[in-house]
Amino acid sequence: MKLYYSDTLNPRKVCALARHLASPVEFIRVELGKGEHLTPAFRAMNPNAKVPVLVDGDLVLWESNAIMCHLAEKAGSDLWPRDARRIDVMRWLMWDATEFAPLASVFYFEHIIKPRFGIGEPDAAETDKATPGFQRYAKVLDAHLKGRRYLLGDALSIADFAVAITLPYAEKTGLPVQAFPEIRRWHAQLNELPAWREPFPALQAAEAA
Ligand SMILES: N[C@@H](CCC(=O)N[C@@H](CS)C(=O)NCC(=O)O)C(=O)O
């Protein structure tokens, strides 16, 4: 399998999961700053011109959450459960994609993407606008996590990898999580996983130099 990624938010979930499962993937770094995702060859894999993309034989799969399902299924892992908990995972993936992540990622975009790609200064008006919505959903998440180690209870799942993905950047981006102790406790537990802390392959020495 080949996993096309960049060291940004959505690929991060997939890279973390691939490492956690020790999936046999070849990591292929796509330089967004150089427009490597805009080439005809890349668009032939993903017409959205976005990372991550997984190529597994004839299967070319885009969308980070779908890729996580595929990697977990392929590994025979319970992180994408085969029983009724699968529906619960779907619930959290949907909730994240439609409610939580669009608000949480505003902070990431303003404070990490903009400076990194030189596309303007962080705009406080944008994060201010996202804050009430973020707090509304963070409250739901915080209440759900009370008494549960992970989103599904005792067992880690791909839903945790999806919903928590903005949390490694919380401090740097000013994501307002201070008022949500269960979210912070949950993320501290995820940080115990080496693959969560270090999801990306090391840069080649020449690139890093
Ligand atoms: N819904 C997609 C979003 C992927 C996405 O937004 N990827 C970003 C990096 S985090 C990207 O490739 N951006 C390039 C662009 O928008 O030009 C997923 O979850 O895979």
Blueprint of the fold:
Blueprint: E1 2-5, H1 9-20, E2 26-29, H2 40-45, E3 53-56, E4 59-62, H3 64-74, H4 85-117, H5 124-145, H6 158-163, H7 170-173, H8 181-190, H9 194-197, H10 205-208
Parallel strand pairs: 1-2
Antiparallel strand pairs: 1-3, 3-4
Helix pairs in contact: 1-3, 4-5, 5-8
The protein binds glutathione.
Residues 6, 8-10, 32, 37, 49-52, 63-64 line the site of glutathione (GSH).
Q: Short description, anyone?
A:
By secondary structure, the protein is of the alpha+beta class.
Describe what you observe in this structure:
- This protein is α+β, with helices and mostly antiparallel strands.
- 54% of the residues lie in helices and 8% in strands.
- The chain has helices spanning 9-20, 40-45, 64-74, 85-117, 124-145, 158-163, 170-173, 181-190, 194-197, 205-208; strands at residues 2-5, 26-29, 53-56, 59-62.
- It has a four-stranded mixed β-sheet, with helices on one face.
- Helix 1 (9-20) links the parallel strand 1 and strand 2.
- Helix 4 (85-117) packs antiparallel against helix 5 and helix 5 packs across helix 8.
- It starts with a strand and ends with a helix.
- It binds glutathione (GSH).
- Glutathione binds next to helix 1.
Task: List the keywords.
209 residues, Glutathione S-transferase Yfyf (Class Pi), Chain A, domain 2, 10 helices, Glutaredoxin, binds glutathione, single chain, alpha+beta, 4-stranded mixed beta sheet
CATH top level assignment of the largest domain:
Mainly Alpha
Structural class: alpha+beta
Q: DSSP strand (E) fraction?
A: 5-15%
Count the helices. How many?
Answer: 10
What number of domains? Answer: 2
Residue runs with pLDDT of under 50 for 5 or more positions: none
Order of helices and strands: EHEHEEHHHHHHHH
Main sheet makeup: 4 strands, mixed
Q: Write down the overall mean pLDDT.
A: 96
Overall form? globular
List the bound ligands: glutathione
